[in-house]
Specification:
Elements lengths: L7 H11 L6 E5 L12 E2 L9 E2 L3 E4 L6 E8 L12 E5 L11 E4 L3 E4 L2 E4 L9 E2 L10 E3 L7 H9 L4 E5 L3 E7 L3 E2 L10 E2 L1 H12 L3 E8 L3 H14 L2 E5 L10 H8 E7 L2 E2 L3 E7 L2 E6 L3 H20 L9 E4 L11 E8 L5 E3 L9 H5 L2 E5 L10 E6 H4 L2
Parallel strand pairs: 5-6, 13-16, 13-17, 14-15, 17-21, 19-23
Antiparallel strand pairs: 1-12, 2-11, 3-10, 4-6, 4-7, 5-9, 8-9, 18-20, 20-21, 22-26, 23-24, 23-25, 25-26
Bound molecules: adenosine monophosphate (AMP) and magnesium ion.
């Protein structure tokens, strides 16, 4: 690797060593907990199902009584039947409790009922179509582990054992601002030399996808005073402050001196493409991550560095994105000396296609792609090679 450059993994390790889950835990209604990070593992205070019940609409029977029976009762879900009289069957519906004495349920499709007479047209097995008490969850058993993002089905599972509220970490407050005198917002006139602030849209969307509470400080002019002022305010209000642009060492790059004046800063040159300059620091109690201004670079560095940092700060235990080994349906004969994150897309043959322009100013590549190909430094790719693919679907979790 080139001297003076930090590897992606070294930078990640240093970043994550600083990240700690937010201290505050909130008790929120389980109905509103989907998407939040569970702060304490949850156990069940009951058996699920609480009693033996029917898995089918049919008849509850006792095997020893044979195949010709009298229908003596009807048990609906939500009601309780009485003990099965000898020689009788109970009409029963899905979810209804099995009456004492019954040892199987016969599907209605295998029965002929005439008035109260029942004939079973099939051999039956003991225990058939009975869901046993506690077969899903045992009282005292762990149902949800701490440090996971709650999915809709997790809140359903909690509700199924009567849990009304769940302890979750407070949302991470993420401050964003965008440096550059050239930036204007869509809707404003685009004077010569100006560009639209596309990073604001990309980075805000990412912050929301990761469940942050967002504070957007907008566009900050290229001046040391303006940058310091916003930085002070953002640091006071947020857990993490992320910026785009101004981290190179050009005349208009004020992020570095501003962070140094307000706190502490590490400037990293990272052996990755796109990317390279990344600033990491601390201002007051808040962490600071300065991303490059290039739209593709800020998108990729957000996914590779800010994402795991935010997830760990949120209290998630698993911060590594899961990758898939996939087939490259293209040649990449002249790889960069740095680790590359190439914009690629699934094709109809189940392989990956490469976006023709991998220039870090071409935002189109990120919108076209289905994810990033994580290519080791200086590794040429030949058509048909197996490569590591980071799909957006995994990076956006
Ligand atoms: P910088 O890192 O400030 O030197 O910016 C690098 C490149 O990214 C320049 O071409 C900037 O115009 C562009 N750029 C910086 N910030 C943004 C932004 N918020 N949206 C779109 N492009 C940007
Ligand atoms: Mg700039």
């Amino acid at each position: 690797m080139s001297p003076g450059l930090l590897s992606v993994d070294e930078a990640l390790e240093q970043l994550l060593a600083s990240a700690k889950p937010v201290a505050e835990i909130e008790e929120v209604p389980a109905l509103e907990a989907s998407g939040r990070i569970l702060a304490r593992s949850q156990r069940s205070t009951m058996d699920v199902p609480p009693m033996d019940n029917s898995a089918m609409d049919g008849y509850a029977v006792r095997l020893a009584d044979g195949l010709k029976l009298r229908i003596s009762q009807k048990i609906m879900a939500g009601s309780v039947g009485s003990a099965l009289e000898p020689g009788s069957a109970a009409r029963i519906f899905t979810g209804a409790p099995i009456p004492p004495g019954a040892d199987a349920v016969v599907m209605q499709e295998h029965c002929t009922a005439t008035g109260t007479d029942l004939v079973i047209n099939k051999e039956i097995k003991k225990g058939e179509w009975i869901r046993r008490a506690a077969s899903d969850i045992r009282k005292g058993g762990e149902i949800l582990s701490a440090g996971k993002r709650l999915l809709p089905q997790d809140t359903g599972l909690a509700a199924s054992v009567g849990i009304k509220t769940l302890p979750v970490y407070r949302k991470v407050r993420l401050g964003l601002f965008f440096t550059g005198d050239e930036l204007v917002m869509p809707g404003e006139p685009l004077a010569p030399g100006r560009i639209y602030n596309s990073n604001r849209f990309t980075l805000r969307g990412l912050a929301e996808a990761f469940g942050c509470e967002l504070r957007d400080y907008g566009i900050v002019p290229d001046s040391l005073e303006a940058t310091r002022r916003v930085l002070r305010r953002a640091a006071a209000e947020c857990d993490v402050v992320v910026t785009s642009g101004g981290v190179s060492v050009g005349d208009a790059d004020f992020v570095k001196p501003a962070v140094e004046a307000e706190g502490r800063l590490l400037m990293w040159k990272i052996a990755m493409k796109p990317g390279r300059p990344l600033a990491f620091g601390k201002v007051q109690e808040s962490f600071f991550i300065g991303l490059p201004g290039n739209p593709v670079s800020s998108f990729v560095t957000f996914l590779i560095f800010v994402r795991p940092f935010l997830l760990k700060t949120q209290g998630l235990l698993e911060t590594n994105p899961r990758s898939i080994m996939a087939r490259a349906d293209f040649d990449w004969p002249e790889p960069d000396a740095r680790r590359e994150f190439l914009r690629v897309k699934w094709n109809q043959q189940g392989g990956l296609d490469l976006y023709p322009t991998q220039d870090s100013a071409v935002l189109t590549s990120t919108a076209w792609a289905d994810g990033l190909l994580d290519n080791p430094a200086a590794k040429a790719i030949r058509n048909g090679d197996t490569v590591r693919f980071l799909p957006y679907s995994e990076l956006y979790r």
